[in-house]
Every structure is written in C-alpha cells, then in structure tokens.
Amino acid sequence: MNGRPLAEGSRVAVLGATGCVGRCVSAALAREGHEVLAVARRGGPATAGHVFAGLDVAAVPPAELARLLTRHRVRTVVNVTGGWGTTEEEMRYAHITLVERLVKAVTLMDDRPRLVHVGSIHEYGPVAEPLAIGEDLEPRPATMYARTKLAGSELVLDATRAGRVDGLVLRAVNVCGPRTTRASFLGAVVDRLRGADASDPVTLRVADARRDFIDVRDLAEAVVLTVTSPATGQVVNIGRGEATAMRELVDLLVAASGLPPRAIRVEDGPIASKGGGWTLADIRLAGELLGWKPRIPLAEAMRATWETPAD
User: Which of 20, 173, 270, 275 has its CA 20 to 30 A from that of 143?
Assistant: First the structure.
C-alpha cells in the first residue's frame, strides 16, 4: 500500500490532545517523526514537547480555526476530542457542534488537510450476541451518546463524499490502558481500588456483559497509520476483535493492583453504559486498509490502566 508522505515542515494537529487518547496519539505521531500541533482548551504536561494551541474548537468561528491550521502548516487533523457529558446539550456540543465547525474550517482552507475522525463502536447501536460488528452494519444507535457520536461521524463522511474534505472515520471500541479516564467504568474501578482496604472491602458492581476493549496505545498506532494512508471516505473499525467479560476485566485489574482478594467484593448488577451489553468489532478491514492489528494483551493493558491512572 502506498502511503501519502507529509510535506517537510508540515504538522499533524491533534484536537483533544490532553485526553487519554489524544496524548497517546500525539506521542505516537512524534515517535514516527511527525511534528504535532496539540490543540486543547487547557495545556499541561501532556502537551510538553509539542507546539500547543489553547482552544475550544466548538466555540471558535471556523475561519479562526482555519487560520490557525494554515499558520501552522497543518496537513492532517486528527479529531480525538471526547465528550463524557450527561446532558443532550453537552453531547451535542462535543460531538456535533465541534465537528460541524471543524469540517467548515477545513473547507475554508486553500490547502485542505486530511481529516481523521475517531468515533465510537457504539454508533452502530446494540447488537445481539454473537454478532461481529462489521462496517456494513446499518447504524441504529439507541443512546444519546451514540446518536450524537454518529451524527459527528456522518458530518465527516458526508463532506468527504461531496468532495469537500479528505476524511476517514475510525470507530473505536472501549479504550483501556495508560491514563484511562475516570469517567469510564475501568477508570472508576481504579479509583475505587485505590481506596480498598482488607479491613473495609470495596464492593464493585459489575454488569453481566461482554465487550471489546483495546489498549489506547494500539488505537494510537491505528491513527498514525491512518494519517498517511490513501484510504478515504470510509469507516474503519478499531478493536481487539474479541468480546471479554466485564468480570474478567475487573479480575485482571485487581490482579494488577496486587490487592488481596479479601479487599474486594464483586457483585452482579446493571451499570450505566453508552452502548449495548455486547460489542465485538470485526477488524478485518483495518488490517486490509491500514496494515494494522492490535498487539497489546489485555493483561498488559490492565497493568498499564492500574500503574498509570488519569491525572
């Protein structure tokens, strides 16, 4: 497969550069020799070593964003902004308004950059076990999170089909590994385990569900490959291609913590979810188009989840 080389002196802009995915993507790009423009509302240790722009992309006029990207000679924009809001307004702002302004900004540029948008496997909606979710599955999202994420992805795909941008959408499964956000189930479990004590056991409620999880470092490698890939106008699933019981994930995390078994009690019970109780991504297209496959075992990912918590 022939890649698309970036022009000398050009940069890759990472939107959401201070989040769990964004900081890992920025680091992976830098390791491959790309200059990174880290874009986030606030800077910090995650942006050290990169050119930083403090910006709320959903709040600025598209023309202002276009000028910023032009000034920094950005040839690819990677959107890994996240939105873990709880209201419809918050989700629309993070998942739709932001993407609308980003797509408009790209179309305003004389030398339009490639646009890599990281969406969610939940955009497909709930599926029945044991179905593997392929890119040809018609999305039927059932939650506000999934519906707004899908709307953002479709903005990128529609603009690409119309010839206004060169875009590709990665639909990622649940993420684990270094700095997993506290807003996620596994991030919340890490916080609970850090307060566990054998004399006062922590009770963890775990859903009877099986989901596809991927280490954020594997996802970052997929993004790096997508930056220079000729593939365009498509959706590509990124996952492990395995459905793992939530109870098994918690057991791996407890083992990584080194806590004695008596310090934790696990009970069955429903938990809030952004999607369905079963996710299993068909990742064959990622291998064919990007030459990508997951490499990090879940046990190692759980160790990293424990050893490198969110800031």
Answer: 20
Tell me, what amino acid is at 85? G
Question: Percent of the chain having pLDDT more than 70?
Answer: 95
Give the CA angle between residues 304, 223, 119 to the nearest 5°: 90
Exposure letters 41-59 (e unless 16+ CB within 10 A, then b): eeeeebbeebebbeeebbe
| The overall pTM is greater than 0.70 | yes
| Side chain identity at residue 131, one-letter code | L
Residue among 103, 133, 111 at smallest CA distance from 121: 133
Give the active site residue among 52, 124, 145, 292: 145
**Residue 261 phi, psi (nearest 5):** -55, -30
Distances (CA, A) of 184 to 41, 66, 83, 169: 21, 32, 11, 22
Q: Which of 92, 77, 148 has the alpha carbon at shortest distance from 119? A: 148
In the residue annotation, 124 being an active-site residue is answered as no
pLDDT of residue 274: 67
